Amino acid sequence: MNSIVCSVFVAATVPSLQDNTADLDRLQQELVTILGDNRSITISYECMTSVAREFRAAGFTGYALLNNLESSWVVVGFSAEKPDIIVGMALDLGTTHLEATLLNLQNGDILSEGNLENTQISFGADILSRIHHATAMRRQQKTPAADFQDPGLDELKRVIISAINELAELLTARAGMKTADIRALSVSGNTTMAHLLLGLDPFHLCREPYIPLFNRVPVLSGNQLQLAIHPIAPVWIMPSVGSYFGGDLISGILASGMAQSKKTRMLIDVGTNAEVVLGNSEWLIACAGAAGPALEGGVARMGMRAGPGAIEYVSIHPEKYELKYRTIGDVAPVGICGSGLIDLVAALYLTRMIDIRGKFRDPALEQDAARAAFMKEHLVRRDGDLCFVVTGINTTTDCDEVVLEQIDLDAMIRSKAAMYAILTTLINQVGLEFSELEEIAVAGAFGRHINPQHAITLGMLPDLPLSVYRAIGNSSLRGAEKVLLDERARRDCEKIVSSVTYLELNVNQEFMIRFSGARFIPHTDPSLFPSVPIF
Amino acid sequence: MNSIVCSVFVAATVPSLQDNTADLDRLQQELVTILGDNRSITISYECMTSVAREFRAAGFTGYALLNNLESSWVVVGFSAEKPDIIVGMALDLGTTHLEATLLNLQNGDILSEGNLENTQISFGADILSRIHHATAMRRQQKTPAADFQDPGLDELKRVIISAINELAELLTARAGMKTADIRALSVSGNTTMAHLLLGLDPFHLCREPYIPLFNRVPVLSGNQLQLAIHPIAPVWIMPSVGSYFGGDLISGILASGMAQSKKTRMLIDVGTNAEVVLGNSEWLIACAGAAGPALEGGVARMGMRAGPGAIEYVSIHPEKYELKYRTIGDVAPVGICGSGLIDLVAALYLTRMIDIRGKFRDPALEQDAARAAFMKEHLVRRDGDLCFVVTGINTTTDCDEVVLEQIDLDAMIRSKAAMYAILTTLINQVGLEFSELEEIAVAGAFGRHINPQHAITLGMLPDLPLSVYRAIGNSSLRGAEKVLLDERARRDCEKIVSSVTYLELNVNQEFMIRFSGARFIPHTDPSLFPSVPIF
């Protein structure tokens, strides 16, 4: 009775002339006795016909299916037999990708999983251009009518609803089910995505003082959002804290367990932005910064998201100068993802092919013969600039070459410097040292694929024992799964929202100073990185 | 803040970088402070866009419009100015007629009123034939699937929804408004009509042990029922007690005020059935019986409901033998309604044209010259049987004659006997005398038009001072109005439902004995009617 939809055994007496309580009142009265909390118990109007029929057919004894909401229980089904499976869908509604799992709410088993591109991309790659599209008409109308709905906003809502329905179709098909079998949906996404999903005006999100239209929304239902899931399925939208602190991060905090931990921990989530949270069960402090793009494959010309054909791992033997790489799916390389980039740049530094500023060394000046030979093969000049060829054109597989240019390297250095500056500004804010952290949870594809040692070599992550780092995967999705399964997690969301302090880095002088100091490999102050060799 | 939709003044602080609470959260927080009860406060998803826009446009200060529900407050609108009018519609959903009023929930003013025929009549004149139509397919299927919906039931639901929409259109047009301006609807109807309105299977209503599918239903919304009123308008369905004790009677009890009275009162509501309730604020006992048809114009060939052209008043001068009548709307007569029938039969008794058994006396045997002349003019033989011509064919107005046949008289006597038997059985049940009653409220068109003295003459109502009788009009509609306006009335409904005891007359031996005793004018025991002359 913890999951957002659960089944409860009911054995009611059979009606008679002496006991002529109406069928649904009879069911309700039994549930009052069984559940016995002070929440109201109602029977969903949309399900009354089927509940009443099944209740009678089952001889007034069987299993009631209930939406387990904060202030009410809502009966949404009845069956003679205990249901083996109650299907819930957890969704990470990302700006670029949707990722979801189908869960059995009876036991937490994963029934299927999958992902899709966010088709809103055709209206703008990033949050700002989406807001722009959603408010195109509104921006022309000084004082829009109360019932004015921007066609661009409608369009974005429609598109995302379709995408969710498509993903639901995909996941249920994989599990041999129908979308209407989905009895609950949880959604974690950033604040803008949540506004767009609900068709709510995002106009003020990107305008000072950056006020969202909502942070908390009541539990909705499938039919309110025109979703193809069960019409009365509760739709839980993860609450947010502000324009730049969305439900995806609340979800991540929830998934990391840090808000339940006595000892202080850190959570790093690298998406389009790098979002970092520090705290414990007593307090939470968070900030975000533009450290992400280079790491998520958004900057390098050959950069790409972690996906089939992405080079996710690179090594260069420090003496033999042998370059090895591995692609996701073991197919011919088509690009390089964040973890591959970190591996590559760390290797280029350790093999001294780039200097501490992240600039390619001139192969012509190289003294070491083996290194010179390797450089000759991989460091080529294009339009006068040096670049590193990870892999050449492969005529067999019809694949392009994968190349790292100086411009990509520079972006990478900025990103890693931003990341380290964020982490140090944040830890300094609360007067702690990195060494006092119990854990640093690294979320996302970034967390799953990177080698923390290489990130430390670059000076991106603090120089701590590797055991401190834990990859927690798509934490936004993991949190969404948690709220489906666990009533305490749903309540914790509210607790997290109200205990988070947000540190604004855009106006933070300390951050800017720390950022400058971090634009070297590993750092202008090498004593911060004792494990990294300095050349 | 008593009505089911009400407005509340809110003055919130303006957002800033220091106070970046989301707009709708800001509104909600203010309301928590203002309303301060333990009910949840949510903002209706469907209204979020307009509420947010108006809240901003009004500078975060103005009037929130709230649905005032039992366990929650739901914000459904916002305006800078205090709304003058909040429109609610109260509906008496009768088996044959719909009657409604449009109210201003701000002050209880009636904005317009009107009525329509229940267009379900084309599928059956009475409850049983409607249930038959609604379950036509289901009766053929031994074990229908859980999602099986009878097409006949769908049809009846569609028809009644259309009729309500039409009536809403009529009433709002009269008040210079639109149907979507209706912000709340209350419905009182019998249990079958409530089932048909909600499209819920009435199959078991007329089958032993006569179990309704529901007696209580949560507050629904306009859009759930596809009504043309505001989509988020709360739709309050008056609860019922059982198959034969519907929300219309609960509404009547509410309107009569008897459930709030320390002294015992009686309520008589004559519709298709005669429904009678006895009680006070401590206890209520009710019963129903088939006393109605003759009184509602459902039996006599010339009988009709109170409406234009219905003879509603008849007198015959006891010495001059002059017959006078009045029709509703003062138009040419087309039939005779319940009150006219009672007047007529009482006058026929007092002028000795019928005997104590309600049989026409033979005009040929009449001794009195004046009476003989009158009888000759009005008492004619058709197919060998005597009948009384109230008014002959009128060639000018192209109107038919209005005639009372012996068969109509017999039905009338049965009805009045049933009525008196019901009343005496009920009062005897609790060991009281009629003289102990503080009031007898007589509801409906019947109550509005009848002359209680004439009903006493016939032995239909007990021989009490006329001041004891009070006509309360359409009590089902009055109760529906009350729940829109008064929070306590909404709670009282629940109290009434749980305190009513229902007395089953169909299996009641005492009732049958009393019925036989009452089949004379005024009664086999004339001492019960000291004010009535015995011939």
TrEMBL record, chains A, B:
Domain RACo-like middle region, first and last residues per copy: 87-260
Ranges for domain RACo C-terminal: 264-532
Gene3D superfamilies on file: 3.10.20.880, Domain of unknown function (DUF4445)
Superkingdom of origin organism: Bacteria
Alphabetical list of InterPro entries matching this protein: Corrinoid_activation_enz (IPR052911), Raco-like_middle (IPR041414), Raco-like_middle_sf (IPR042259), RACo_C (IPR027980)
PANTHER family cross-referenced by the UniProt entry: IRON-SULFUR CLUSTER PROTEIN (PTHR42895:SF1), IRON-SULFUR CLUSTER-BINDING PROTEIN-RELATED (PTHR42895)
Protein's name in the database: DUF4445 domain-containing protein
Organism: Desulfotalea psychrophila
